[in-house]
Amino acid sequence: RMTRIMDYRGPDEEGYLIKNKTGLGHRRLKIIDLHTGQQPMSNEDHTLFLVCNGEVYNFQELRNFLEKKGHRFKSVSDNEVILHLYEEKGAGSLDCIRGMFAFAIWDDKKKELFLARDRLGEKPLVYAVIPDGLVFASEIKALLPVMGHTPALNPVALDQVMTFWSTVSDTTMFEGVRQLPPGEMLIAQDGLVRRQPYWDWTYPTTEDYHRTSVEEQADELRALLSDATRIRLRADVPVGAYLSGGLDSSV
Residue 205 has what pLDDT? Predict the structure, then answer.
């Protein structure tokens, strides 16, 4: 019921994993690896299981690194690299991923759930702690079938939306439902839930700007934009772009 509420987000495929008191569900929109890459997906010894919403733009480079380390891949999906990278580096894997993502990994050995959201929060991830445990999804309405009640409106969040056009930090429009903030991870184990950031903004100082010339900064910006565009064009289906016509879109 939870995943089928979101079938329009992933109309191409559905998949499930139920292990004891843990359940993972997934709806898929096929962009990379149209024939394999079904989720939930597992590592080689079936101790880690992944569901992911998003894209890993540097997956080819990460896959080359992981194959040299001896990891064996079952698909050519960009999402599969997350599993093997997590095997290799644990939470440190987040430092290596370039992309937009919200994913969950169930570690069957540790009986631990690991959630993470991309640095700028391009992909949504909401959760709620209920009497039966922790539930999470890409949209709030997918939580409703298991929450047992309709959550009340959060008046603080409503004030934030009217003031800032968005809720702030981990609040949502509903009492008891939170969002994992951008650049944060969540670990749930033995009935305990803890969150921590893995990334934050760093702002250049005036001195940083004066260390290089305007021409050098322009060259660096061009190189960064060209590389960012290049890796986002990796897909097995046609790629489109929606541009507003402003300065950043024109660049």
Answer: 84
Which residue has tokens 């959760």?
127
Q: Distance between CA atoms of 35 and 39, rounded to whole angstroms? A: 12
Q: Give dist(CA 118, CA 225) in Å, integer.
A: 19
Q: Please list the helix, strand and coil fractions of the chain in percent, rounded to the nearest 5, in that order.
A: 30, 25, 45
Q: CB-based burial of residue 218 (10 Å sphere; 0-12 exposed, 13-18 middle, 19+ buried)?
A: exposed
What are the structure tokens assigned to 27, written together? 């709806």
Under DSSP, is residue 144 helix (H, G, I), strand (E, B) or coil? helix
Q: Which residues of the chain have pLDDT under 70?
A: none
Structure-block tokens of residue 52: 């992911």
pLDDT at 78: 92
pLDDT value at position 249?
80
CA 115 → CA 83, 187, 225, distances in Å?
A: 12, 6, 29
Residue 207: per-residue pLDDT: 84
Amino acid at 31: I
Report DSSP letters for 158-180, one per residue: HHHHHHHSS--TT--SBTT-EEP
